[in-house]
Amino acid sequence: MGVDRETIEKRFFRLEHSLRKLKKLSKTSWEVYIENEGIRDQVERNLQIAAQICIDIGNHIIAYRGYRVPYSYGDIFAVLREENLLPETLANTMIQIAGFRNILVHDYLEIDHRIVFASLKRLDDFKQFAEYILTRL
């Protein structure tokens, strides 16, 4: 059973767009980052979008193919691992990203700016997810 490839490709196109913005922002020094609320907002929003896109893609694949229903956003990536669409290390990374997305959305009063800033050095995790999924559709 396949998936709606057009739906997934649209989301990956949007993911690329967010990752391009984040790559530019990743050149920002810690000092500028911590002093500039606008930059912090841009980083947080684009990381949230990137994570949500991966969640949406995983959820789409699971629903379309009739895999077991995940109990959380993080569990989406466990299901993809169970179905051999992601290797264990990447699935575990994506589970952490889903948790990070939840912090950005729900615990915005408690955001650790050092963790968000450090996430700018981990943008390849999103690219690796996209490459893995695209080669397995």
Describe this structure in words.
The chain has helices at residues 5-25, 30-35, 37-65, 73-82, 88-106, 113-119, 124-135. With 137 residues, the chain is an all-alpha fold. The protein has one domain (5-135): Up-down Bundle (Four Helix Bundle (Hemerythrin (Met), subunit A)), CATH 1.20.120.580. It is globular and about 45 Å long. The model has no long low-confidence stretch (mean pLDDT 94).
Would you kindly provide a brief summary of this structure?
The chain is an all-alpha fold and 137 residues long. The protein contains seven helices and no strands. It has helices at 5-25, 30-35, 37-65, 73-82, 88-106, 113-119, 124-135.
Radius of gyration: 15 Å
SSE class: mainly alpha
Assign the CATH class: Mainly Alpha
CATH homologous superfamily classification: bsu32300-like
* Proportion of helical residues: over 70%
Helix segment tally: 7
Number of strands: 0
CATH architecture: Up-down Bundle
- Total count of domains: 1
Keywords, separated by commas or semicolons:
137 residues; mainly alpha; 7 helices; globular
Show the helix and strand layout.
Elements: H1 5-25, H2 30-35, H3 37-65, H4 73-82, H5 88-106, H6 113-119, H7 124-135
Helix pairs in contact: 1-3, 3-4, 3-5, 3-6, 4-5
